[in-house]
């Protein structure tokens, strides 16, 4: 079929596209070879400087000090009781006993970003374990649930990519190794023994790229080869520059009939051993060496090409491609802010933040945070740590949570705050919404402001930052008791006290 017979040029079979024959595999068949892909992604996450930087930047901007949870259901006292219990529990959430809940958020995001997926397991504990709520959270790497495991369970359910489905396609269990198959074990467990874990205990955090896709793909999948090649190129350039820096000086001794003594008093190299009289190899080349040569010998140096005048731009182009795939602006990943104006930088950061917020609200918060929060409420009510009448019927209302990610810092504090004030005064937004955007709880902020005002009033302080008493221009707005406001109605003014 000639290119002129197709509607889309991309479907042509002409000379230029004759070798362009991609696979038409489905969303899960296309994941064949995932073990190799995952191993290479983890290798780069350990050894490639730019991949490490991309992971670090995304974790720092998505999680920072942690995504906070605020109760929405119940009275003020009930919400405070829930928040207090949750805060106490977050210190003991890690089943491995290493991280807090906020540290687990950062680790889960990094695993998800690096491997394309991570499994979260709720581990129920006994009341005798002494936890505020008898629940802990375990993070499980992707390799522990084999993506190559397909079969039929004893109950007749299909097992696909390590996940068991019932007759109507619901996930009912995950088949996992007792321990990571690539780790070191001392015989306490059988790392190759698969166990069935009910789906109620597991949440699979991943980003489906195609409808029906069952497992995640590493975020660096499409640039793995580029990263590998670029890393090898940089190593070669470094080695070439190191060799180019091996400058040395040479004494060229005259022929024997001209000066038999030579500059070293007759000491010449042994041509059999290839060493000078003091044992220095004639072919040795070290920075700062002054080397004597045998009579009549000369040295010709090769002149390898340098890195090239276009090397920096070539490197920049490849790094921009890597940054684009990894969801991090080139300027953020590399710290290279040359020729970037403030306005351009704001646009770049806004795009980056939009991508981070999408990942937070579409994946991390519903798949990880809310899943753990639901388990927390279930165990808190069952253990008696929380008293909620009719919890079974009210569960969706009780577990509803306001999640507050870390706020973005102002790019230009004076301008940005002034813009917030104008937007609030114009009714475009509210103080609560702007407070949430900064990663703070509006109710807590109002309580703190009220407490500060009471403390200042009790001590007779009039602060320049108190808008009740000082205007934005710095003029006092405080009036003595009994002062009468100006009469603007033609009637006697009211007492300002």
What do you see in this structure?
- By secondary structure, this protein is α+β, with helices and mostly antiparallel strands.
- It has a domain at 254-296.
- It has twelve helices and twelve strands.
- The protein has helices at residues 34-47, 49-62, 76-89, 101-115, 224-244, 311-326, 330-334, 342-383, 391-398, 413-425, 431-437, 442-458; strands at residues 68-71, 117-124, 135-140, 151-152, 158-160, 163-165, 171-177, 194-198, 202-206, 248-252, 289-293, 401-404.
- The strands form four sheets. Strands 4-5-6-7-8 form a five-stranded antiparallel sheet, with no helix packed on it. A three-stranded antiparallel sheet has the order 3-2-9.
- Helix 1 (34-47) crosses helix 2 (49-62), helix 2 (49-62) crosses helix 4 and helix 2 packs across helix 6.
- The radius of gyration is 34 Å and the shape is globular.
- The N and C termini lie far apart (91 Å).
- The model is unreliable at 262-266 (pLDDT under 50).
Number of helices: 12
> What order do the strands of the largest sheet run in, or round the barrel if closed?
4-5-6-7-8
Helix content: 25-40%
Largest sheet: 5 strands, antiparallel
User: Shape from CA axes?
Assistant: globular
H-E string: HHEHHEEEEEEEEHEEHHHHEHHH
User: Structural class, from secondary structure content?
Assistant: alpha+beta
How many strand units?
12
Q: Estimate the strand proportion.
A: 5-15%
Span between termini: 91 Å
**Poorly predicted residue ranges:** 262-266
What's the pLDDT, averaged over the residues?
86
- The Rg value, from CA coordinates, equals 34 Å
